Amino acid sequence: MGEKTGFGQFIAKRREYMHLTQEEMAQRIGVSKSAIAKWETEGGLPDRDNLKRLSKVINVSVDDLHRIIERGCEESPEMDINITADVINVLESYGFKVIPPEAGNSC
Question: How is domain 7-75 classified at the CATH fold level?
Answer without folding.
Answer: 434 Repressor (Amino-terminal Domain) (1.10.260)
